[in-house]
Amino acid sequence: xxxxxxxxxxxxxxxxxxxxxxxxxxxxxxxxxxxxxxxxxxxxxxxxxxxxxxxxxxxxxxxxxxxxxxxxxxxxxxxxxxxxxxxxxxxxxxxxxxxxxxxxxxxxxxxxxxxxxxxxxxxxxxxxxxxxxxxxxxxxxxxxxxxxxxxxxxxxxxxxxxxxxxxxxxxxxxxxxxxxxxxxxxxxxxxxxxxxxxxxxxxxxxxxxxxxxxxxxxxxxxxxxxxxxxxxxxxxxxxxxxxxxxxxxxxxxxxxxxxxxxxxxxxxxxxxxxxxxxxxxxxxxxxxxxxxxxxxxxxxxxxxxxxxxxxxxxxxxxxxxxxxxxxxxxxxxxxxxxxxxxxxxxxxxxxxxxxxxxxxxxxxxxxxxxxxxxxxxxxxxxxxxxxxxxxxxxxxxxxxxxxxxxxxxxxxxxxxxxxxxxxxxxxxxxxxxxxxxxxxxxxxxxxxxxxxxxxxxxxxxxxxxxxxxxxxxxxxxxxxxxxxxxxxxxxxxxxxxxxxxxxxxxxxxxxxxxxxxxxxxxxxxxxxxxxxxxxxxxxxxxxxxxxxxxxxxxxxxxxxxxxxxxxxxxxxxxxxxxxxxxxxxxxxxxxxxxxxxxxxxxxxxxxxxxxxxxxxxxxxxxxxxxxxxxxxxxxxxxxxxxxxxxxxxxx
Length: 651
Hints:
Elements: H1 2-14, H2 35-38, E1 60-69, E2 74-84, E3 91-97, H3 109-114, E4 117-118, E5 121-122, E6 130-138, E7 149-150, E8 163-172, E9 177-187, E10 196-198, E11 201-204, E12 210-211, E13 213-215, E14 226-228, E15 243-252, E16 256-259, E17 262-263, E18 268-270, E19 273-283, E20 288-291, E21 295-303, E22 306-315, H4 323-340, E23 348-352, E24 364-366, E25 369-371, H5 383-400, H6 410-428, H7 434-439, H8 456-479, H9 481-495, H10 502-513, H11 518-524, E26 533-542, E27 551-559, E28 567-573, E29 578-583, E30 589-596, E31 600-605, E32 621-623, H12 632-646
Parallel strand pairs: 1-15, 22-23, 23-25
Antiparallel strand pairs: 1-2, 2-9, 3-8, 3-12, 4-5, 6-9, 7-8, 10-11, 11-20, 13-14, 15-19, 16-20, 17-19, 18-19, 21-22, 24-25, 26-27, 27-30, 28-29, 28-31, 31-32
């Protein structure tokens, strides 16, 4: 806690007092403070926090003041950013992400690629937002503002201002630090694509000038140290280095604020405004939300793997009667993930429920803070729990492992979707319908590629979420549940706080299984394969006298996609006899010649739908005698697949 106190003193020195960031007076009478405002400061996991080793390499350190003006939907902020060069060569420039500029016009890279749509969201005339970096100065007062220039390393789009380059007057040597003091102004859009406002609700995500990630040699296979530079794209999310944050947030006096980290002291109300101060370390982002209508609920929670965490709900009034459902889902998710992968190391977890119409800000993850779906429906279905479980899963694969979501989004989204399914099945009885989900994969693409390389959000989502999850399920199918649990835990334990790559995950799979997985990863991860085995033909001839039995049935099975080590095939004869065989699937095709008293009636590949990555079930089935009028192969193939659908619980 002394470390947190030190950062508070530093922020007072580097930044203007929060009281100088004024917003219009909301009320002359000070309202009674909501529950979270009256609390003493959280103390983290340990009173000896200052003696503990950092969990991460804290490359970035932020001290920020920000004031929200509801009349203009603007954030006015000051920031002191201290950045350490983690590499081995001098660095001559700093790069900052100005994410709100993605919403500045229809010409930005984000808007061009997304078409103004994200998930169920569609931009409106009020979805315009921007960030002005008003000034940048060194600690010595040198003005670097004239040196700034926007850069577009991915597409050269001069109308995109989401990444800015700031040349320094002197290089930052290896292991040295530089401090930049900035002033900035943000116009929030109407809630769209993870951030913005809905009436008097605010979701401030990606709201401050954020230093780009700098990768050391060896990180994600990199041979030389350097910046990882990308614009804000229609499909991409985020990637940053770990650090610490000390943030003062000023809002109208009747607002309650939820934020990353924990409050270092009770909120202070003065002149119609209220100022909160939050601190977080070993995180790579900071987000906050504010509303005068939050219904606040808090419960402590601990398990053998979690020493203690405060679960904080910031509910929309429309969902205040659902607090037990939110809390139950949060506890189950935290408990399971900590049991399976490793302890949740932070002292708080905040869940923000956006108001009706606010799903543009919903379903998103930030360190120690998630947003649920908007509260439009007063009696939501199990999607309420699923979204909470999914976003808390991101605390592990986005928050702690901290993959590069620009370039390897599946390491977050696919892994989180896999973990989400396990919780939903274990604690909510919702079993994923894998055959149906595999059929969604109509445009398979490599998983390890830049997020914007996918054609549109649908292709991005079906690959990095669904196909990524199915790849993990396919590995589990081959190695068994216990070995898969070991793989996932080993991967998390080895790579938390270290920004791993797909190759790092493959190495873990190989270390645990003592087997090479190059073929599998080349086909399904680095490549765009799916499994596709087809019954090509059935020929029957009588071998007895006068055209009677026994009968010789010849069946041709072909491989049209990637490999599977076991391909179950079921042969059904006219007398009801069933014969099951397993093909190793190595060759491009195999021909079976079977002699039986009666002819083959039909053949089915994968009768129990065990081929996780099979996405074209329609050609898995063929009947020997085809009714040409009704095209039984097609109809019966559909029937067999529909039987699988209705035999499962769809997600």
